[in-house]
Amino acid sequence: MNDIIRLLPDALANQIAAGEVVQRPSSVLKELIENAIDANALHITVIIKDAGKILIQVIDDGKGMSDTDARLSFERHATSKIKEPDDLFSIQTFGFRGEALPSIAAVAQVEMVTRRQEDEIGTKIWIEASEFKKQEYVSAPLGTSISVKNLFFNVPARRKFLKGNTVEVKHLVEEFQRVSLAYPAISFRFIHNDQELYTLGAGQLAKRITSILGKNYAQNIVSLEESAQSYHIKGYVGKPEIAKKMRGEQFFFVNNRFIKHPYLHHAVMAAYKGLMAEELFPFYALFIDLPFSMVDVNVHPTKTEVKFEDEKVLYALVLASVKRALGVYAHAPSFDFNQPDLAQFFPVQGSSKAHTNQSSKDISHSPKDTKSKINTNNWEKLYKELEMDRLTDATEDLSLFLGSSEVVEQDDLRLESRANDNFTKTDQSESLKSVSIFQLNLTYIVSKMPSGLLLIDQHAAHFRILYERYLRQHLNQSPVSQRLLFPQELYLQAFELALLLENIDIFRHLGFELEVDQNQQIRVLAVPPECAQLQQFSDLIEHLLHQFQNPHAPDVAPDYLYQIAHSLAKRQAKKHGEVLLPLEMNKIIDELFACEQPNYSPDGQKICVLLDNDAIQMLFLN
After folding, report:
1. Looking at the structure, do residues 513 and 614 belong to the same domain, yes or no?
2. Are residues 35 and 41 in contact, defined by beta-carbon separation less than 8 angstroms?
């Protein structure tokens, strides 16, 4: 019998290793930027073509490599970072694994040009699909330039599963943001298809944050710094008012390495509890410093998942430091135990425990008893007046609902029943018989019809109406807009701005009128009529941009449009629990049955149900 186990060829082994390291263009960018940082670069330029499918180039002014080191850097398991097993647990740099460059070279065409300070000429190497093509001496500036061309050209199956350009650029920008936030002392540039998206000068972390995320963050971030045991944490958190409904602006760094850690993220979210809606996500950029021996970064091939020696202590430190930062800036309750005893400001005697057990009778004997009674009487009087006003308003609303122009006294309202035979019937009780439309549980529109009762889900119905309206506006290129009395400015990241400009026609067809000035500042001049009641449009437009970043079918324009119309309509549709006037309910019914598909919402939910007269009669038969 022949032997069946054999050693893999180097090229195939490198492709298998590349499956772990090189998942998409952003994986390549991450490895190359980290190598540049390890080379002590002060200026790093990133050049991208066609979302990284054609070119990913990283140019740095670091210390460069000799011709021998340049050649060995493409060999598997070759590294300058590890000499013995213990070094794995005290890694202080990025590029230590030894598989990055050979894995990249296994699935792309790679060109490297590098020169050290002490060398007069540099070295140029060309490798294609792990096959060494040539090495030569060339004139080169100090540092290293690595160009990765035609990614996955020799692995068509991998290339086929890459997402659309918008999605891949989003991932590239995310990796760039993470590294540039971790190293604000390094200057960065990011160029995509000859368009410069980011130019980040060296400076402080706060400046780097505003340069990446927008100048509106300058007044809305709070600094923090705390230490406990061997852990030290510092960074910035965002005020609750700039929290967003989408993730993406949450950054944890451990010894300047970006990580993802759900447990620590929970600590941050716990600190914000009660300060913002539960569906929002705050901004934070938190840097955790600790001895390298107390963290294991080899849990995941991309090194974004780590294990800590004592996660509970770190959790408590993150929670306490964020709450303290928010409390200092008056965004969370904070208690100063150095203040004088609070008891002297209140009519309370004895200890807090004794006060807790006191009855209301005991409290009434405090020195300020008279004033307390007077205040209580005034509050009771005010409460009664407010209650009367509330009842009057309710009566007026009811009379409006019944179609009467006069306010009916509450005691005169009687419903048709044998129990009320001894009472005088009013005209209003008779008018109940003529009610043809009303709202049930602030969720359903109930309409009287000759054949029975029609029940309509108000959210699903309005969702369908707006969805078809937005589609018609775009397909017929006949947008309907409502101009704003005061235009609003938008603060977008450079990538979001480029994405908006790229898809500006879609926004216009939906009814948005946007203006771009010479400083690339966006102003909202007009919006679709359904959006005019909003106070701020930044969340809505960012949500639409998010749809461009995460399309289900990015290369099919019609599907792309349906997604945007779906997203915009769902956000603007009347919600369950929203009060509707009779005029609004009638309008929804009229517009619903003018739709092409009035029976189901764009999500497939049933919109209306007819309860016919026979079905109603059956409810009363034994």
Report:
1. yes
2. no
Q: How far apart are CA 455 and CA 599, in angstroms?
A: 12
Q: Write out the H or E segment, with its range, that includes residue 597.
A: none
Residue 437 near residue 446 (C-beta atoms within 8 A) = yes
| CA count, 13 A, side-chain hemisphere, 130 | 20
Count of structural domains within the chain: 4
Could you tell me if residue 418 is inside a domain?
no
Q: List pLDDT tens digits, range 457-511.
A: 999 999 999 888 878 876 666 667 788 888 888 777 777 787 888 778 878 877 7
Can you spell out the DSSP letters for 494-518? Answer: HHHHHHHHHTHHHHHHHT-EEEE-T
- Which burial class, exposed, middle or buried, applies to 169 when counting CB atoms under 10 A from its CB (0-12, 13-18, 19+)? buried
Pairwise CA distance, residues 349 & 481, whole Å: 64
- Copy the structure tokens of residue 313: 């202590």
* Domain containing residue 485: 436-622
Dihedral in degrees, nearest 10, Cα atoms 320, 325, 326, 327: 80
Tens digits of per-residue pLDDT, 333-369?
A: 433 434 433 333 333 333 333 333 433 333 333 334 4
Nearest to 254 by CA among 223, 232, 274: 232
Tokens coding 441 = 């549980």
Task: Please tell me whether residues 236 and 107 are part of one structural domain.
Answer: no
| Residue 180 falls inside a structural domain | yes
Q: pTM of the entire structure? A: 0.64
d(CA 570, CA 174): 28
Residue 225: in which H helix or E strand, if any? strand 221-228
